[in-house]
Write a structure and sequence with these properties.
This protein is an alpha/beta fold and 921 residues long. 44% of the residues lie in helices and 18% in strands. Bound molecules: adenosine-5'-diphosphate and magnesium ion (MG) (2 copies).
């Protein structure tokens, strides 16, 4: 093992920004800032390797690490002229987790470590503030008890309440009739006097003793070992695991642990703490942006307990441009230094940075910098603008934007012209419109979403315990907290609509009360919203509406179009779309689809008018009856194809002939059966018998795909006719058509020979009737391992292959995708699969079959066109594989088309350069 400890301080650091794997993002950032000469409190990082060794040894620190840590503490002491554990010149530290990828709020940080009664007295003397020292001490005990000793925070609520009452009495505030929240507002932490704090500390210690059977540890080193272990332990706590799963962060990375000398933002009104972004994380606008709180420590800004102030005068979101509470107005020198530092950091890292800072008695300290999380919209704007500023190249700009994140740009917004009832305004924390039923707890959000309901999670403020509920919700509304509160940061990361800090809302006991205001800001009324009521959020403006408000499709920004142009210029893979209707085809084309890769004809069957004819066709006795029913379907199919061909003028359209087993179209219940019986003049009993006859034990592997055409060729005949008649009709109107007829689920050359002859027969007839010919290509899907293996033979008949990777995954893995949900989660959790193979292609298995199919197919027919349809066609990591495999195109759902275009461009760039795209953050 390499060294366990990396020191930073006094302008020098053992590590640097490149060492994220070893030092975690936070440790690497602290080291780099130190090297740059930016003021950072000194400290050291215990590496991720130590964390992994800790777990390997059954949660024990490896030998020697403690000594190395003691030596590092020694270096801190001499640098700061203070001593860890000394009452005369106390050195206090924070113990901070920090993984390779930033996991906001996922891991626990302990502040003010190194205090006991005696040292607290020393700190009081040294800072001249007993109140401050005792407040730091009681906060430390609280966090330490919660995180390290496993005594939950809420066990201390009552003691804190008592301290507040005690303080209230001294202040002459009548507290007898106040509830906890009101009391907190009347007597905030800053008004707790030394006497109340001293007795609170004693009570807290008693609670710890009662709960653990041991006194609170007095020895600073004992505290330190406990805290370091707890940081490592937190890598495997529940909320960290949930977050990792959501963001595909491997368990094996481990976290680093940073121990850093404390600076204090709560030493009075010339101190404070805050968070800043070098550009607006929501819109991407180039302006310095952030929030701060005077006389506050640590998490106060993000915890949302007090609503923070803007950094810049012009940064306030309210109406008045000049904000007297801004850092710029309050501490101009510290602000100016911060502006200078942020500019340097952005230039240095060549990306938007998210900074955490503290000001201790007017002196600025940086406590964290990292690549800032941003909305998809902001990501695009920042990448394009930085490329134009010359900070990065166009190629880098393409690689900078996570294709998954641009999904959110394509989502609808509130229809401005629709009638709506304004409920309240908060901060525009994460863009997008969302409507849903109000729920007040994360569990409830998960439960109702599980029932298929759209929900909006409403909380006073969110905390990491709410992650699963935020994930389940369409949108999030909080009453407190700013633009950098937990709710805001996490929602932006998830691409979810969020309105934060909506102070007109108060949440309690399973309902929310909303105060309404008139134009002059005077309260006029209160509305109560209960669980299950519908509300609509506009996260782009911070507006909350009562009821469901209609939405309109996304309007794409100029920067987005620009980025897409750059991406298209470097991309090799073509991007088509799966679209079954003219409407979907138009959407796809607007998003840049270069053709249709999969048009599923059966979706056209479910329409109310048509399903009757479909059922007649299925249940008819004999060919004549089937043909009669098919004749009714023909005009419907033809007109659908006409619509699709028109929308896709000049572009290829791959139409798949009927694929699903016929019983999927049959009547589901008695009423439908009766209706069909009347329409067909066939007794219901008879139909029921037929129905049962068609039932299959394993329909996915049953009578479906081209098997249908072998037993009932008239179905494909009708479909081929509809396609070709439509093609002739559209061509006659002077519109270029490129039909491609695709046979599903083939496994033998003979099946293709038969269906091909059928299509050609129909084509000759149609061309003779119409007096014109159109070029039509014939091809097949590759969805079975056998098809991939005999691809050479299939290519003798087929002019193109489309890998149907949904079925190919299913048939290769022998896992039904309809049933896999029950156990695939466990497979991913156990690390058997890194990701769900139905979402992200199983490269080593299914991917190998794709390559076999490609090689054998192209050997038999040079120039054989190869594409992919199925979920994987829109999945960035699968697209990277398809690029490497040299396929011609991918096809995905219309809304994924821009995602696929960008992912294909990134894949092309990655193929060009030996290095892949940048890692997680
Ligand atoms: P997270 O990973 O959740 O962001 P951090 O380790 O950054 O947690 O700690 C949270 C906050 O605690 C920081 O933003 C900072 O305000 C405060 N903090 C951490 N270490 C120190 C320190 N040495 N001095 C002062 N404040 C600190
Ligand atoms: Mg932080
Ligand atoms: Mg299929």
């Amino acid at each position: 093992m390499r060294r366990s400890i990396y020191f930073f301080g006094g302008g020098q650091a053992d590590g640097d920004a490149q060492q994220k794997e070893l030092l975690g993002g936070k440790g690497a950032g602290l080291a780099e800032m130190t090297r740059l000469g930016i003021p950072v409190p000194p400290g050291f990082t215990v590496t991720t390797e130590v964390c992994n060794a800790y777990y390997a040894a059954g949660r024990a620190l490896p030998a020697g690490v403690e000594d190395e840590i003691k030596a590092a503490i020694g270096r801190l002491e001499s640098l700061l002229d203070a001593r860890f554990g000394s009452p005369e010149a106390p050195l206090l530290v924070s113990v901070r987790s920090g993984a390779r990828a930033s996991m906001p709020g996922m891991m626990d940080t302990i502040l003010n470590l190194g205090l006991n009664d005696e040292i607290a007295r020393g700190l009081a003397k040294r800072t001249g503030s007993e109140r401050f020292a005792l407040d730091a001490y009681r906060r430390f005990i609280l966090t330490y008890a919660d995180i390290v000793l496993g005594v939950p925070r809420d066990r201390f609520e009552e003691a804190l309440g008592r301290a507040r009452k005690q303080a209230a009495a001294r202040l002459g505030v009548d507290a007898t009739r106040l509830n906890a929240a009101e009391l907190e507002r009347k007597v905030p932490d800053s008004l707790l006097d030394p006497e109340s704090l001293a007795s609170l500390i004693q009570r807290q210690k008693d609670i710890v003793l009662g709960a653990t059977g041991r006194p609170f540890p007095d020895d600073p080193y004992a505290q330190l070992w406990g805290a370091i272990r707890a940081v490592f332990d937190s890598w495997k706590n529940h909320r960290a695991q949930v977050y990792r799963k959501m963001h595909d962060i491997p368990e094996a990375w481990g976290t680093a642990c940073n121990v850093q000398a404390m600076v204090f933002g709560n030493l009075g009104d010339d101190s404070g703490t805050g968070v800043a972004f070098t550009r607006d994380p929501s819109t991407g606008e180039r302006r310095f942006y952030g929030e701060w709180l005077p006389n506050a420590q640590g998490e106060d800004v993000v915890a949302g307990v007090r609503t923070p102030h803007p950094l810049s005068r012009s940064g306030s979101l309210g109406a008045d441009a000049e904000d007297a509470c801004s850092l710029e107005a309050q501490m101009p020198e510290a602000y100016a230094e911060l502006v200078e530092v942020q500019g340097r950091l952005e230039q240095h890292f060549r990306d938007m940075q998210d900074l955490e800072f503290t000001i201790q008695q007017k002196k600025l300290f940086l406590l964290q910098c990292r690549t800032g999380k941003r909305t998809g919209r902001a990501a695009v704007r920042i990448a394009v603008e930085m490329a134009k500023e010359g900070l990065i190249s166009q190629r880098e700009a393409i690689l900078r934007v996570d294709p998954g994140s641009i999904d959110q740009l394509l989502h609808p917004s509130i229809d401005a012209s629709a009638p709506k009832r304004l409920l309240a305004r908060g901060l525009p924390a994460s863009p997008g419109a969302a409507t849903g039923q109000v729920v007040f707890s994360a569990d409830e959000a998960e439960r109702r979403a599980g029932q298929g309901k759209a929900v909006i999670l409403v909380r006073s403020e969110t905390s990491p315990e709410d992650i699963h509920g935020m994930k389940a919700a369409r949108g999030i509304l909080t009453a407190r907290g700013g633009m950098t509160s937990h709710a805001a940061v996490v929602a932006r990361g998830m691409g979810k609509s969020c309105v934060a800090g909506c102070s007109a809302v108060s949440v309690s006991q399973g309902q929310m009360a909303v105060t309404l205001y008139d134009d002059h800001g005077h309260p006029t009324d209160t509305i109560t919203v209960k669980a299950g009521d519908l509300i609509t959020l506009d996260g782009g403006t911070g507006t909350v509406y009562l009821g469901a408000v209609p939405t309109v499709p996304a309007a794409l920004s100029g920067e987005f179009e620009e980025l897409m142009v750059w991406a298209d210029a470097v991309r090799r893979l073509r991007v088509r779309s799966n679209a079954d209707t003219p409407h979907d085809a138009r959407t796809a084309r607007n998003f840049g689809a270069e053709g249709i890769g999969l048009c599923r004809t059966e979706h056209m069957f479910f329409d109310e008018e048509r399903i009757q004819a479909v059922r007649e066709m299925i249940l008819a006795d004999g060919e004549a009856g089937r043909r009669r029913a098919l004749a009714k379907l023909l005009p419907f199919q033809r007109s659908d194809f006409v619509g699709v061909f028109r929308e896709m003028a000049g572009l290829p359209v791959t139409i798949r002939l009927l694929d699903p087993p016929l019983h999927e179209f049959l009547p589901q219940d008695e009423a439908q059966l009766q209706q069909l019986s009347r329409a067909m003049g066939v007794p219901a009993k008879e139909l029921q018998r037929k129905n049962e006859e068609l039932a299959e034990y394993n329909p996915m592997l049953g009578h479906r795909g081209c098997r249908l055409a072998i037993t009932s060729p008239e179905i494909y005949e009708m479909q081929a006719r509809a396609i070709l008649e439509a093609a002739c009709e559209v061509a006659a109107a002077g519109i270029e058509v490129e039909p491609e007829i695709m046979i599903p689920l083939s496994m033998t050359r003979r099946e293709l020979a038969i269906t091909r002859a059928l299509v050609e027969r129909v084509a000759e007839k149609v061309f003779a009737e119409k007096g014109r010919r159109v070029d039509v290509r014939f091809g097949t899907m590759i969805e079975l391992p056998r098809a991939a293996i005999v691809a050479g033979e299939l290519a003798e008949e087929a002019e193109f292959f489309s890998f149907g990777t949904n079925d190919l995954t299913q048939t290769t893995l022998g896992i039904s995708r309809d049933d896999a949900g029950r156990f695939l989660g466990a497979y991913v959790e156990a690390g058997i699969f890194t990701r769900d193979p139905f979402q992200s292609l199983d490269v080593s298995g299914v991917g190998e079959l794709v390559e076999i199919g490609r090689d054998r197919g192209r050997a038999a027919r040079p120039g054989l066109k190869l594409g992919v349809c199925g979920e994987h066609g829109g999945d960035p990591s699968s697209i990277a594989f398809f690029e490497r495999a040299g396929l011609d195109y991918v096809s995905c759902s219309p809304f994924r088309v821009p995602v696929a275009r960008l992912a294909a461009a990134q894949a092309a760039l990655a193929a060009e350069t030996p290095r892949g795209p940048r890692s997680t953050d």
